Structure formats: structure tokens, C-alpha cells
């Protein structure tokens, strides 16, 4: 036996025939399953109470074509809308011409000068008014009265006297340090400003230097010019004067009376004559209303036939469901009826024949543990 290995326990050997107590799995028939379900749920298969046999009545659809008008009605509605829009339009009316433009020499209306606007002192109420504050009495400090004792208290001579030490608040030093920083920054700014303002000449070039020749140029002379706005002003003024002259000429021409010629006296008199055009004959016209009426009739007929088929199919389905329900109810009631089991019939027992199979013999399994123990015993 190897060192460190655990001893093995021999297991029970398997015989040649292995069975589960000779029991076979039993399967239930459809009838037994229905009896089991009907017996556990009797309420579901009880007679139907309050069953109302009604058919669903289809509702005729509301088509969008029913609300449409004829072609003539749509044309009349469109014409009425156009007439209404035309009546709502405000007629154009030109403004009257200012006679001052025609009568003035330059054609510019006279504008009367207006007086200058003199500002008045605003009556502003100050937010803080010292005179509106009531006189407050001066604050008077009142010290607390000393505690009067019947017997004076003797001061201890051995206790040390309290010596006050001077101290400084942090807020006092904070303000002083801020002022010191401001003073230093102001001195630095003044020093930089003085340094920038002080002129420092560049050092003189030592040695021979070549100076560039300065080119003498003539002085700049001012040339006369004229602004484009002045030209536009005179051009606009000339155009305006031309319009004024044209309007004056038209007004002068309108003052003279000119009678209109009589057309009846000049033109030839009207003589009626027979027309050579052929008479208009109306052709066969098929109105759109007639076409729609025929289409509507065919559609209504198809819809009626379809509804009739659906109604018959619904009635057949309802009859089939009712028959199926009656059949199920009859089966359930039949299953609930009590029936005694029939008495067993006395019959001869089935003959028992001898099997041709050999008898099963059990044998001891060969386990490695037993072989090792036998070897151990056999060894001296």
C-alpha cells in the first residue's frame, strides 16, 4: 500500500438484471383525463345562465364623398370667395398735391423755426434727507452700581496681582498692512512713470559713419476738390425743378376747355346684318354626377352582398358554437352521472408457461481492495 493513500471501501456490485421493483409507468387515456378535469372543475362545466344570443350589427361607414358638392357648387363657392376678397380690398387714393411746392420759387416748403427747448430743474427727492430725521437724544453711558456689602471683604495678600499686558487686534494690523502695500505699489508706479518720462539719448556712434543722402522733394500742394454729395445735390435739384415745370405745364393745359368729339356724328351708323355662323348644336354630355351615381350603386351592391355573406357566416359560427357548447355540456353531465363498476367475471386463470431463459446467477465482483488484502495475507 502506497504511503499517504486512503484505504478504499468495496462497493456493492451490480447484478445482471436491474429493475425498479417491477413497476411500469401507467399512461392515462383521453377519457380518463377529461373525467379528472371535469371532476375537479364542476363549476366551469355547469349549465350556462343568462346567455343572451345576440348578433353584432354592422354600422354603415360614413364616406368622405358624401360631403362633396357638385362641380357647379364648387365653382360658385370659389367665385363668391373671389368677389368677397375683391370687395375687402381698399381702393387706392392718391394724396393731394401740396400747392406750396408749386408756388414757392425753389419748390421747397417753408419750415417755421421752433423755439429752443429750455431744460427745467428736475424735482428729485434725495434718498437721504438729514432734515427729515428726528432728533435723537445723545447716548449717555450708565455704569452698573457697585455691590454694597455689609462687611467689607478682605483682599487676599498671597494672591498675585493681575498685570494687564498690551495687545493688538488683527484688524488693526490688517488695515495698516494694506495701507503699506498700497504705498509701496504707488511708489513703484511713480518710479516707472518717471523712468519712462525721462529722455535718454542714444549713445553717439564712435568712428566713421556714412550718412545717407537726403533726397529733396517738393512741398505738397493742395489740389482743389469737389465732393460727390454736392454733385448729387445739384442733380437732384435740377430733376426736381424739371418735375415742377412739367406739372405746371400740365396744370396750364388743363385750364383750357376742350370739348370731346361726338362719335355718333363722325362714325357710320350701325346696320344690322345676318351672321354667317352655323347654329350651335349640343352634343351628348355625360355629367360627373351620373358617373358617381353609377359607381355608388355598384359599390352599395357589393357592400350589401359582403354584409350578407358576413351576416350568414356569423350566424353559422354562432350556431356551430352553440352546438359545440351543448355537446360539451352533455358530455360533462354524462360524465357526472354515477355508474357502478361491473362485477368481475370469473374466468379461468391464464396458463403459466415455463420460461426458456436461464436462471440468473449472482457472482462476487472483483474488487482491487480484496485482491490487495489477499496478497498481503499470503505474503510471510
Overview of the structural elements:
- It is built from eight helices and no strands.
- It has a domain of 37 residues.
- With 380 residues, it is mostly helical.
Average pLDDT score: 76
Overall shape: it is flat
Main sheet, how many strands, which sense, barrel? none
The number of helical segments is 8
User: Approximately how much helix is present in the residues?
Assistant: 40-55%
Low-confidence stretches: 14-19
- The Rg value, from CA coordinates, equals 66 Å
Give the H and E element order.
Answer: HHHHHHHH
How far is the first residue's CA from the last residue's CA?
16 Å
Structural class: mainly alpha
Number of strands: 0
Amount of beta strand: under 5%
Task: Give a concise summary.
Pfam families: TPX2 (PF06886). With 380 residues, the protein is an all-alpha fold.
List keywords for this structure.
flat, 0% strand, 8 helices, mainly alpha, single chain, 380 residues
Question: How are the elements arranged and paired?
Answer:
Layout: H1 30-40, H2 71-88, H3 99-103, H4 170-197, H5 228-255, H6 263-266, H7 288-336, H8 368-378
Amino acid at each position: 500500500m502506497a504511503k499517504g493513500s486512503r484505504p478504499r471501501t468495496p462497493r456493492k456490485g451490480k447484478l445482471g438484471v436491474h429493475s425498479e421493483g417491477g413497476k411500469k409507468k401507467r399512461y392515462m387515456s383521453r377519457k380518463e383525463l377529461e373525467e379528472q378535469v371535469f371532476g375537479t372543475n364542476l363549476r366551469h362545466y355547469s349549465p350556462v345562465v343568462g346567455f343572451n344570443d345576440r348578433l353584432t350589427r354592422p354600422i354603415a361607414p360614413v364616406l368622405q364623398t358624401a360631403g362633396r358638392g357638385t362641380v357647379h357648387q364648387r365653382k360658385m363657392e370659389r367665385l363668391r370667395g373671389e368677389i368677397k376678397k375683391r370687395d375687402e380690398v381698399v381702393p387706392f387714393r392718391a394724396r393731394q398735391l401740396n400747392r406750396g411746392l408749386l408756388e414757392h420759387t425753389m419748390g421747397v416748403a417753408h419750415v417755421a423755426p421752433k423755439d429752443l427747448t429750455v431744460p427745467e430743474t428736475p424735482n428729485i427727492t434725495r434718498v437721504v434727507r438729514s432734515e427729515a430725521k428726528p432728533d435723537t437724544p445723545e447716548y449717555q453711558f450708565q455704569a452698573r452700581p457697585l455691590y454694597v456689602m455689609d462687611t467689607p471683604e478682605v483682599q487676599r495678600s498671597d494672591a498675585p496681582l493681575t498685570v494687564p499686558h498690551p495687545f493688538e487686534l488683527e484688524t488693526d494690523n490688517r488695515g495698516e498692512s494694506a495701507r503699506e502695500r498700497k504705498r509701496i505699489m504707488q511708489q513703484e508706479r511713480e518710479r516707472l512713470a518717471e523712468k519712462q518720462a525721462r529722455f535718454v539719448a542714444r549713445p553717439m556712434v564712435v568712428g566713421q559713419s556714412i550718412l545717407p543722402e537726403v533726397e529733396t522733394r517738393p512741398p505738397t500742394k493742395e489740389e482743389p476738390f469737389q465732393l460727390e454729395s454736392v454733385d448729387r445735390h445739384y442733380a437732384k435739384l435740377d430733376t426736381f425743378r424739371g418735375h415742377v415745370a412739367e406739372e405746371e405745364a400740365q396744370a396750364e393745359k388743363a385750364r383750357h376747355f376742350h370739348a370731346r368729339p361726338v362719335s355718333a356724328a363722325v362714325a357710320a351708323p350701325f346696320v344690322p346684318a345676318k351672321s354667317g355662323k352655323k347654329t350651335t348644336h349640343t352634343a351628348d354630355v355625360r355629367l360627373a354626377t351620373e358617373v358617381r351615381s353609377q359607381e355608388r350603386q355598384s359599390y352599395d351592391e357589393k357592400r350589401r352582398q359582403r354584409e350578407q355573406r358576413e351576416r350568414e357566416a356569423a350566424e353559422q359560427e354562432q350556431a356551430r358554437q352553440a352546438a359545440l357548447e351543448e355537446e360539451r355540456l352533455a358530455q360533462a353531465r354524462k360524465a357526472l352521472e354515477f355508474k357502478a363498476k361491473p362485477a368481475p367475471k370469473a374466468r379461468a386463470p391464464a396458463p403459466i408457461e415455463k420460461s426458456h431463459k436461464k436462471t440468473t446467477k449472482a457472482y462476487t465482483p472483483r474488487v482491487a481492495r480484496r485482491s490487495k488484502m489477499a496478497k498481503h495475507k499470503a505474503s510471510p
